[in-house]
Amino acid sequence: MSLFLPGRVVVFDYGEVISRTPHGAWDALVAMTGVPADELLPVYQELRHDLDRGDLSVVEYWRAVAARTGRDWSLTDIHRFWAVDFTGWFEVDPEALAIVEELHDAGTRLALLSNAGFDFGDPYRRSPMGSLFETVVVSAEEHVLKPDPSIYRTTCERLGITPEQMVFVDNRAENATGADAIGAVGHHYTSPAALRTFLLDLAARTAEGAPA
Q1: What are the C-alpha distances in Å from 37 to residues 15, 21, 31, 90, 97?
Q2: Is pTM beyond 0.90 here?
């Protein structure tokens, strides 16, 4: 069966759905910064919320990481760390992206909704992947993070749809549940195979006129 969902827009999260988890980049950062992984990565993750909400610039983020780990990094250091971290997130899972492309080629409307910093907006939109999406919503640009209801509603408004027309795919269960809470269909992403099964089932039910 074709992955065609008439009357629906499938909205994808990016990190660890379309992209792979950047383990290699994290290992490189540990080596470059000299901060042990069990010290660096918890701070990296915790402060990421402020970066992705747009409360910190990239430079402010890395200076905050330095302060929390007792380091003093130059702007040159920060740029090197940022470059490794940033590019690490652009290694995609080809199976996942192939599903996005298959949906697009079948005529299903698509969008991207990502908790990410300002620096990801243009690369998302201008990448080959970005050509598959009608709109890209980046949390830093909206100054709000998933699962806040407002960011899902903003996405719907940009697409000109009701929440009931949105299907949202995210690797974090709380973010999928956040979409459910406004009346959309949320899917907790675990693998490309499980996503394909979910979408095929939804396509079959849509074709039969059954409720999602």
Answers
A1: 20, 15, 9, 21, 29
A2: yes
